[in-house]
């Protein structure tokens, strides 16, 4: 959403938008004295949404302001209504130049109630049975300093948006309905927090299809929902387990239903339910569920100073993953990836997955794919898998096709990956030639690294404290690998860490007996020296056995008994 900017001399302009503004505001220190200020709220009614959906967001019909004098610890206004002036809302009041203030704003298009006593500290649905509350925005700055300059603030969406999307074409006169149980939240625009009320509400949205809604977005709706990137202590999101999508063909009385579990809603995010709705009358149709950050823009300017407002909440923000939830394995498509990732570089995939889904991922992330330059952080912690397919993130068909040879199409778009608990093995060639992969989070359930699992990848550390079996060439030619932690090794095969010439620490202190080996060298031959490597073991007996073995000693590493020092 891009909003026209109104600059009024001697005013502070508040722009409702999701686009960054780059104006600098550096108030000069002025002696204590009052200053009359007008806060102006503006929105471009023609371009209110950058959500990328067919159904636009309505223009806000009202706006409110909260202001507290931090210097005197006095609340001046709890919910001061803005005066409409064309497409503006204006707030005028007198402030002290030498004081700092907490200022919070709320704007909506109806459907919400602002508490008469608490003001913007307590906002809820005006009617919990109301199925269609509107778009709403909020923002807060706890250190506003009055100045002569015009200031601009960006409001973020305080609500989640639901979008029901038809991937094919639906007939005119058909009816589409969604029903689910919604938590009722009270929102504080001052603390940027969401508190669930004791009661829940069953809501229903229905659309009779006309010629303008036969494909694309059929239904959209808004609701208050927390966001784990907003404020510590919030619920991470609103999860719905009884989401029911219903399709009724024109002229029929029989409704065809599909229930989707674990649908997540987050403030400032869209939840998109997409599929061929009309096929519900014929088969059990699978739908993709994605959490899309198309509304988000974190480069938001502050009010009255040069410090950007980091969105609601002041804490450093973790990675926010747009999410795709698969209800059936094999239903991931590149179109879903592109829609969910957008211009960002992170993604979470939940639900069952199989080889076909991984093929879509590696095709997208390959050096000749559409996501080749993404440097993607991929979260698979909720993926329904206990084993990765062989060559999961490798474009080659067989290990022998590229070992020791140039790979014409390596994976270049993957930077980080978080693997699910319950996974037992990093499969053969799983991350081979993932040339930009630097970080892999391996769960404690993994006990084996397969053959060539990380061959020629970009990993910088290997934290695998439960792994007891390491396959041949598992980390062969990992030129950036510096730190490795392994479990109670029982078997480690030929060239497992060959040509890892930058390694500094290998921690095998969890190994209680000399592990079995096969083949020639664990670290490679003398032509791959490791002058900076120290291998830490648990006992002098293991040190004596390994340090004198030709399978370990040819690269001339150092040896030590005991736990390695902190990195």
Automatic annotation (TrEMBL):
Residue runs in coiled coils: none
InterPro entries named among the record's database cross-references: LRR_5, LRR_dom_sf, Surface_bspA-like
Region (Disordered): 295-314
This protein's name: Leucine-rich repeat domain-containing protein
């Amino acid at each position: 959403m891009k909003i026209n900017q109104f600059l009024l001399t001697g005013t502070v302009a508040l722009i409702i938008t999701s686009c960054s503004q780059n104006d600098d505001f550096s108030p000069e220190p002025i002696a204590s004295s009052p200053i009359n200020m007008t806060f102006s709220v503006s929105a471009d009614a023609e371009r209110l949404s950058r959500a990328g959906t067919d159904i636009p967001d309505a223009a806000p019909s009202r706006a409110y302001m909260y202001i507290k004098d931090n210097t005197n610890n006095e609340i001046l206004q709890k919910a001061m209504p803005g005066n409409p002036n064309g497409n503006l809302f204006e707030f005028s009041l007198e402030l002290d130049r030498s004081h700092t203030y907490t200022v919070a704003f709320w704007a909506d298009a109806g459907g919400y109630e602002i508490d008469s006593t608490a003001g913007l500290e307590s906002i809820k649905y005006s009617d919990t049975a109301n199925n269609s509350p509107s778009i709403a925005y909020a923002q807060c700055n706890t250190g506003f300093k009055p100045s002569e300059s015009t200031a601009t603030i960006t409001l973020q969406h305080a609500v989640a948006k639901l979008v029901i999307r038809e991937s094919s074409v639906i007939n005119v006169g058909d009816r589409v309905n969604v029903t689910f149980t919604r938590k009722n939240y009270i929102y504080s625009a001052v603390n940027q927090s969401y508190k669930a009320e004791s009661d829940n509400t069953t809501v229903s949205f229905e659309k009779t299809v006309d010629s303008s809604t036969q494909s694309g977005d059929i239904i959209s709706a808004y609701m208050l929902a927390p966001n784990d990137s907003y404020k510590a202590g919030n619920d991470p999101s609103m999860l719905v387990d009884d989401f029911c999508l219903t399709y009724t063909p024109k002229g029929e009385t029989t409704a065809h239903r599909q229930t989707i579990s674990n649908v997540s809603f987050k403030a400032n995010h869209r939840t998109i339910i997409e599929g061929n709705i009309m096929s519900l009358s014929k088969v059990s149709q699978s739908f993709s569920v994605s959490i899309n950050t198309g509304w988000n823009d974190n480069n938001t300017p502050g009010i009255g100073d040069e410090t950007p407002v980091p969105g609601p909440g002041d804490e450093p923000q973790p990675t926010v993953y747009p999410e795709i939830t698969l209800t059936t394995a094999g239903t991931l498509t590149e179109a879903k990836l592109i829609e969910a990732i957008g211009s960002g570089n992170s993604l979470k995939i939940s639900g069952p997955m199989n080889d076909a889904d991984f093929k879509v991922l590696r095709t997208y992330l390959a050096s000749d794919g559409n996501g080749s330059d993404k440097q993607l952080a991929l979260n698979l912690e909720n993926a329904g898998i206990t084993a990765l397919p062989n060559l999961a993130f490798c474009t080659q068909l067989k290990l022998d096709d590229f070992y020791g040879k140039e790979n014409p199409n390596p994976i270049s778009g993957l930077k980080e990956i978080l693997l699910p608990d319950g996974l037992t093995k990093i499969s053969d060639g799983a991350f081979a030639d993932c040339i930009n992969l630097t970080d892999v989070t391996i769960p404690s359930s993994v006990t084996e690294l397969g053959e060539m699992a990380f061959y020629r990848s970009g990993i910088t550390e290997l934290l695998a404290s439960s792994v007891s079996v390491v396959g041949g060439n598992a980390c062969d030619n990992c030129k950036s690998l510096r730190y490795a932690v392994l479990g109670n090794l029982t078997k480690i095969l030929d060239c497992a860490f060959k040509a890892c010439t930058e390694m500094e620490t290998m921690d095998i202190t969890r190994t209680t007996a000399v592990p079995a080996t096969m083949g020639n060298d664990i670290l490679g031959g003398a032509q791959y020296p490791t002058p900076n490597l120290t291998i830490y073991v648990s006992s002098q007996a293991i040190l004596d056995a390994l340090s004198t073995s030709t399978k370990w000693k040819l690269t001339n590493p150092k040896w030590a008994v005991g736990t390695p020092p902190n990195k």
